[in-house]
Design brief:
Number of domains: 1
Order of helices and strands: EEHHHEEHH
Cofactor: a divalent metal cation
Radius of gyration: 15 Å
Keywords: Metal-binding
Strand content: 15-25%
Strand order of the largest sheet: 1-2
Organism: Pisolithus microcarpus 441
GO molecular function: metal ion binding
Number of helices: 5
Number of strands: 4
Structural class: alpha+beta
Pfam families: DDE_Tnp_4
């Protein structure tokens, strides 16, 4: 269960500020897992030099660890989070992400859900690119 008492998967996104393009993501943890823990499983957390161009950094909220490339400048930004805006856009374009009607009874079922979400992330980036 997540904090809203729903079955869910944790989805971590790193988005570009100017166009909401997704540059890195992490999927597959249970929705009840803390974001900072799920973040540690992302490629970005271990290979940030491969994911981020030189002299770039990530703005994150205070739940994430401070690193030279990962900063949390604001505790509660007024305009909300860019990642939240990206999730709203994703769920607007792909209504299936609001509530997947799939039963996860095996590892293969979990992979189907992960691939489903990955396809939506790829299509999101295509929409952002061609818009």
């Amino acid at each position: 269960y997540d904090r809203k008492c729903n079955y869910s998967l944790n989805c971590q996104l790193v988005v570009m500020m100017h166009n909401l393009q997704i540059v890195n993501y992490g999927l597959g943890h249970l929705g009840s897992i803390h974001d900072a823990y799920a973040f540690q499983a992302m490629q970005l957390a271990h290979e940030h030099k491969l994911v981020l161009p030189t002299e770039h950094w990530v703005w994150a909220n205070s739940a994430y660890p401070l690193e030279p490339w990962c900063l949390s400048p604001f505790k509660r930004p007024r305009g909300g989070s860019l990642v939240e805006h990206a999730f709203v856009a994703l769920k607007g374009w792909f209504q299936s992400l609001r509530e997947l009607h799939l039963q996860i009874q095996s590892k293969q079922d979990l992979y189907v859900v992960i691939y489903w979400v990955e396809c939506c992330l790829i299509l999101h980036n295509m929409i952002v690119h061609f818009e």
